[in-house]
Here is the input.
Amino acid sequence: MTRLVNKVAIITGSGAGIGKEIARSYAKEGAKVVIADFNEEALNATVAELTAEGFEAFGVKVNVAVEEDVNRMVDDAIAHFSKVDILVNNAGVGDQMQAAANVQDATWSRVIDINLTGVMRAMRKVIPHFIENGGGTIVNMASISGLTGGRGGLAYTAVKHAVVGMTKNVASQYGPQGIRCNTIAPAQIATNFAANMQDMDQFGLEVATRGVNLMPKVGTVEEVSNIAIFLASDESSLINGVALAADAGWSAY
Ligand SMILES: NC(=O)c1ccc[n+]([C@@H]2O[C@H](COP(=O)([O-])OP(=O)(O)OC[C@H]3O[C@@H](n4cnc5c(N)ncnc54)[C@H](O)[C@@H]3O)[C@@H](O)[C@H]2O)c1
Here is the structure.
């Protein structure tokens, strides 16, 4: 359990779900973790839990859709822990499975602002610091909807494809400066993610879940965090710019 010793990691959306488990698993591997979430109660509870377990955790309230928040998140992390080595862009929301003909502008904007612009701004802010420090690692959270066409709504599918594209762009352009950027593309994982979506588009839901009976299993947050540890650690030093499907082979069919 020493794969991330002396590393400092920011994990967005780490007050719950996948992000919270990534934070805990990174801390277990020796990292100091920055719990970044816009749900203040959840982030405070996560910091308290991890601290009680003997880990070093620092909380920052951030809405990743707000530029000043994202910049402050990185500045506060550096001020608190002196540096940042790992950025996990995990915070994300769903799009009510809205199919193309039913996309609501408000949903489109929200999904773009949080799941796409938030990721861009966090990378834009942290990359100069990584370069100054001689390198760093970014782990983005895409989705199987970033690799396939019909398993989510239009906005969610569009932004997760864009996250895969940004990942490859950053990896190829900043790899020579010691920066690795990879993305995880999970299928369904047991969290509150789906339950957090109200007013589902019934047509979109029906067509997006047509193939769900072929999904071998619903994943756990631990199964995703195992991949996130690997991608953040030196064990994956030869891997840059990949989108790793975490779907038990669902998209291989
Ligand atoms: N659960 C799944 O089935 C699944 C599958 C594929 C991909 N993903 C992706 O994994 C990531 C995490 O999902 P999850 O299942 O853990 O979701 P979740 O809803 O359980 O947790 C998301 C966390 O992100 C926080 N968050 C949401 N919007 C935010 C914002 N604007 N600023 C800061 N924090 C914000 C929430 O407060 C929450 O703590 C998302 O990017 C999601 O798209 C999830």
Notes: The longest strand covers residues 179-186. The chain is about 45% helix and 15% strand. Residues 21 and 62 are 18 Å apart (CA to CA). Helices lie at 17-28, 40-52, 67-81, 105-133, 154-174, 202-208, 221-232.
